TrEMBL record:
This protein's name: ATP synthase subunit delta
Alphabetical list of InterPro entries matching this protein: ATP_synth_OSCP/delta_N_sf, ATPase_OSCP/d_CS, ATPase_OSCP/dsu
Function description: F(1)F(0) ATP synthase produces ATP from ADP in the presence of a proton or sodium gradient. F-type ATPases consist of two structural domains, F(1) containing the extramembraneous catalytic core and F(0) containing the membrane proton channel, linked together by a central stalk and a peripheral stalk. During catalysis, ATP synthesis in the catalytic domain of F(1) is coupled via a rotary mechanism of the central stalk subunits to proton translocation. This protein is part of the stalk that links CF(0) to CF(1). It either transmits conformational changes from CF(0) to CF(1) or is implicated in proton conduction.
GO CC terms, sorted: plasma membrane; proton-transporting ATP synthase complex
Amino acid sequence: MSRAAIRYAKAVLDLAKDNGSVEAVLNDMKSVKATIEGSKELRNALNSPVIKADDKRAVLRQVFTDGTKETLGLVDVLVDNSRANLLGGVADSFIAEYNKSNKIESATVTTAVALTPELETKVLAKVKELTGSTNVTLTNEIDESIIGGFVLRVGDTQYNASIASQLGKLKREFSNSL
């Protein structure tokens, strides 16, 4: 995340707090993040120096028609300052700042298949053990190359309980003992 994106995110968060619309803006930022991550065309349009600022503003206002006044104001400021390409980063930063201010831990678990309720309970227990926090948001990513088990990332801590990792350890042990 760029420093500029973090500054814009903090400013929007402060404005949303002042206006009592933090939850609504949070929902907008989640929507902005998902939309930008899901659309290569939108990312390309925001990054393009050829597309005029007014066209970028029109596209963003059309895509995010239900946005709060804070979110639409952010779009206008970013476009006016030729920083529309930062919108996704600002959304990420806003969510991170919100989580930080509300003491919410964000964890990502990578599994070979979608999480079952049983595995989700185990993962949440591990996150609580690692962080001491009971307020956790969990994101599940699927990567079939880990074969089984899971890889858990909380902040800068990683807990690897994948079968691929265990096989790699065995392979290293065998090659070292030869």
